[in-house]
Every structure is written in structure tokens, then in C-alpha cells.
Specification:
This protein is α/β, with parallel strands linked by helices. It is about 50% helix and about 10% strand. It has a five-stranded parallel β-sheet, with helices on both faces.
């Protein structure tokens, strides 16, 4: 069975280190590299069923906060995402998992730890987690789940709203009509249980979607 691993990070040297780690765990695996979120999304789609793991940095061109995780998880929900980021603390790890990542490592982790985590994920074992997670059924967990469940286009619309773009600008950048943008906003507000786009933006911001890490 062919195995493809996608490494998304905007630092070439760090991508090289992760490529080395992935290749040592999975000799013969096809390694794809992406330096922007848009390139990562394209690669994730083009890789097809062979894609078995996405290794993702939070802070890269096209991504704000945890949007990269949410978008790639929405595009390929069956593919595990391992976040390797310079963000510190259990809060970042908790948020990363809430938006669809299966595990979180600091960029300060050594190669042995990275390789061990890759092996556990590829072997179908549950990664080791540390720290607290939101209680199942809590309001914050419910909102996170709804945001993570938005479609890729809905996420792009929501991120554009966070960026202060008007419907006309969003339509132009996404190549869709204004009426389609409005339809997506209606669906987003319904899922987030809010009444207008300002409230939707506030909910997304409260979950860290527009925070740089």
C-alpha cells in the first residue's frame, strides 16, 4: 500500500528535518511539502487516498490561528493531523486538538520524540496527550465542534469576515457570487447559533481562529 505524508511548514530547513523524521519512520513513503496553507490544501486533495498523515505548522502564509487545522481537517477529515508548532503551553495543544489535530508537538521537540509520535499515529495508536481538555458537552466544546464542522468554503468565508472583508470582496476572492456568500453566512450563523456576522466573528475570535501562533 502506498503511503503519502504531507509536511506543511514555511521554513525549508524545518521541512527538511521533518522529512528526515518521516522517512526514517516510513521508508519509501512519498513525502509532499507545502510552504503555504493554500499549497497544503491543494496537495491534500491531490494526494488522494494514499495520504496517511499531515504534519502542520500553525503559523504559515494563509493561516491565522488554528484556521489551518480547521481547513485541512474539513478538507480531509479521515487523515490525522500532527501539529508541530512554536506555540507554547497546554492551551495551544488543547485548541489544536479541538479543531481536528490528533496530536501537538513543540518545535523544540527532538527528532526522537517527533519520530515516536509519527510512529504512534501511523500505527493507529492514540497519541499521548498532556494537559486539560474542555469537558464534553460544555458550551466551548460545542462551539469548537461546530466551527471544526464547517465546510472548507464556509471556513474561508468566516476567515474573510474576520479579516474585515465585505461580501463583494469575499465573492471575488473565492470566485463565487455574492448570493452564495450570503448563503454560506446564513449557514455559518445557524451552526454557530448567532444572529449576525459580527457575532459570528466574535465567536471565531474567542476560539483563537485569528490569533497568530
Amino acid at each position: 500500500m502506498s503511503v503519502t505524508i504531507l509536511i506543511a511548514d514555511d521554513h525549508p530547513l524545518f521541512r527538511q528535518a521533518l522529512t528526515l523524521a518521516a522517512a526514517r519512520v516510513n521508508p519509501g513513503a512519498r513525502i509532499l511539502e507545502a510552504g503555504t496553507l493554500a499549497a497544503a490544501a491543494r496537495a491534500a486533495q491531490e494526494a488522494g487516498d494514499d495520504l496517511k498523515l499531515i504534519m502542520l505548522d500553525l503559523k504559515m502564509p494563509g493561516a491565522v490561528g488554528y484556521s489551518g487545522i480547521a481547513l485541512l481537517h474539513s478538507e480531509r477529515p479521515e487523515v490525522p493531523i500532527l501539529v508541530i508548532s512554536s506555540a507554547e503551553g497546554t492551551a495551544a495543544a488543547e485548541e489544536a486538538r479541538a479543531f481536528g489535530a490528533v496530536s501537538f508537538l513543540s518545535k523544540h521537540a527532538d527528532l526522537d520524540q517527533i519520530e515516536a509520535t509519527i510512529a504512534r499515529i501511523m500505527g493507529g495508536q492514540a497519541p499521548l496527550h498532556h494537559g486539560h481538555t474542555a469537558a464534553p458537552g460544555s458550551d466551548i466544546e460545542t462551539i469548537r465542534r461546530e466551527v471544526a464542522g464547517l465546510t472548507p468554503t464556509q471556513l474561508k468565508v468566516l476567515l474573510a469576515v474576520l479579516d474585515g472583508q465585505l461580501n463583494k470582496q469575499i465573492a471575488h476572492s473565492l470566485g463565487i457570487t455574492e448570493s452564495t456568500v450570503k448563503a454560506h453566512m446564513t449557514a455559518i450563523m445557524r451552526k454557530l447559533d448567532v444572529r449576525n456576522r459580527t457575532q459570528a466573528a466574535l465567536v471565531a475570535r474567542s476560539l483563537g481562529l485569528d490569533l497568530a501562533h
